[in-house]
Design brief:
Elements (H helix, E strand, L loop, with lengths): L1 H22 L3 E3 L17 H7 L2 E2 L3 E5 L7 E4 L1 H6 L7 E3 L3 E5 L4 E7 L10 E7 L1 H6 L22 H20 L1
Parallel strand pairs: 1-3, 2-8
Antiparallel strand pairs: 3-6, 4-5, 4-7, 7-8
Length: 179
């Protein structure tokens, strides 16, 4: 009987671990490297090329590393992004080690706060999808920012992720009980 109780206890711990791992976001270093928040030397090296190759889901966080005495990160509207308007950002970050959690689906726009850097291409568009949408289109190219002209879509329920975690726990529990 003690063996059965240990198996159940272990299975419950595994279930909790599976559930937590399905709901927590990732921390993504912008550009994939510490010195990426700068004016890119070529179009192929631009941050938007990196963004197009990446998938961003609700709960992920973007992390910027930069010299805070020379630069900053501004979250702006689409219009602010297109015109490189630094005068009225949604949010301004100046600490050199900026972390922004992506809390909704849809596009996010970021530009450099340093004079003329945005005009020279130091900017980033990120399109965030819901975890459920991410599972449905795994393997497909990341959505283009131009696909998102309207308001952001509300996040979908994560019941499918919970159901997957329960299946894993049931299989593990079944295997432990048979031992």
């Amino acid at each position: 009987m003690a063996c059965f109780e240990r198996a159940v206890s272990s299975s419950m711990a595994l279930l909790l671990l599976c559930f937590v791992s399905l709901t927590e976001g990732r921390e993504l270093l912008v550009g994939g490297k510490t010195d990426a928040w700068k004016i890119s030397s070529s179009e192929s090296d631009s941050l938007n090329k990196w963004s197009e190759r990446s998938r961003f889901i609700i709960g992920d966080s973007l992390v910027w590393k930069y010299d805070s005495s020379k630069d900053s990160v501004l979250e702006v509207s689409k219009r602010g992004y297109e015109t490189c308007n630094t005068s009225s950002p949604i949010a301004e970050y100046k600490d050199g080690n900026t972390k922004v959690e992506l809390q909704r689906s849809g596009p996010f726009y970021f530009i450099s706060g340093a004079p003329d850097h945005c005009q020279q291409g130091q900017k980033l568009t990120v399109v965030v999808i819901s975890p459920r949408h991410h599972k449905m289109i795994s393997g497909a190219p990341a959505p283009s920012p131009s696909q998102f002209e309207g308001p952001a879509v509300a996040p979908a329920s994560s019941a499918a992720g919970l159901r997957g975690g329960l299946v894993v726990a049931a299989v593990v529990l079944g295997g432990l009980v048979l031992m």
